[in-house]
Amino acid sequence: MQNEDAYLTRKRIMLVDDEPGLLRMLETILSQAGFDAVISFGDPREALAYCESASEQANPAHLFVLDVMMPGMDGFALLSRVRKIGCYARTPAMFLTAKDEPRDRLSGLGLGADDYISKPFLPQELILRIKAVLRRCYADENPMLELAACRVDLSNAEVLREDGSSCMLTAKEHEILSVLARNAGRIVTIDSICDACWGTTFGYENSLMAHIRRLREKIEADPSSPVSLVTVKGLGYKLVEGERS
To answer: Which of 16, 28, 163, 208 is the most exposed place for a label (fewest CB within 10 A)?
Structure first.
């Protein structure tokens, strides 16, 4: 699991909390979990200045973990102002606070927060919930696909089968599977796949079908009855993710 989560632990997390002891504890918890790119602020105004600065573009935050009750500017106000900065309009955010009233949760979620964790908390719970948010928000960056009969390492274009054997994807197979993986669980039309992989929607349908057939031979337990790369008649294809049984 550690290798599979490597893309998550490379994400830069911004912590903002006015309690120095808690801030140090959060830094330690994240460091022990493998998160090395952590930015910490005890003053929300400094955090806002960082987000507004031109220099931060080289080191953007990928997740905000914000305390609510802070002097000068509470976590809700901070997130509201950060959301007005173009590059952070969709950056995921979590609130970490001792307050646990329904109206506070609604305020945070109304601002687009992705989770709300009440103090006190267990370190493992915090890490699991941070990873859950990152996994959901950066799903298209996950190099590992869990399918019914195999795992696919997209970073190495390698299919890892249940029996321990493996095989490599061709460049075009990798391209097609990557398009489907970015839209996992959704129908991708034939025209959309052809346009993404060949740059045109005309003349490549038969070629796509041939590549799909060979892909199924590599990733399905029974290529004639696919459960991971399924055909949606008259529309296109859908990739169905799911751990092996």
So the answer is: 163
- Could you report the per-residue pLDDT of 8-61, keeping only the tens digit for each? 898 999 999 999 999 999 999 999 999 989 999 999 999 999 999 865 667 889
> What is the C-alpha separation between 89 and 148, in angstroms, rounded?
36
Cα-Cα-Cα-Cα dihedral sign, residues 103, 107, 109, 110: positive
C-alpha 53/C-alpha 189 separation (Å) is: 42
How far apart, in whole angstroms, are the C-alpha atoms of residue 170 and residue 156?
Answer: 11
Q: Are 126 and 35 in contact (CB under 8 A)?
A: no
d(CA 239, CA 148): 11
Q: How far apart are CA 132 and CA 126, in angstroms?
A: 10
Q: What is the pLDDT of residues 158-189, one digit of tens each?
A: 999 988 899 999 999 999 998 998 888 899 99
What tokens does 8 get? 């998550």
At 160 the pLDDT is 94
Q: What pLDDT, on a 0 to 100 scale, did the predictor assign at position 123?
A: 94
pTM over 0.85: no
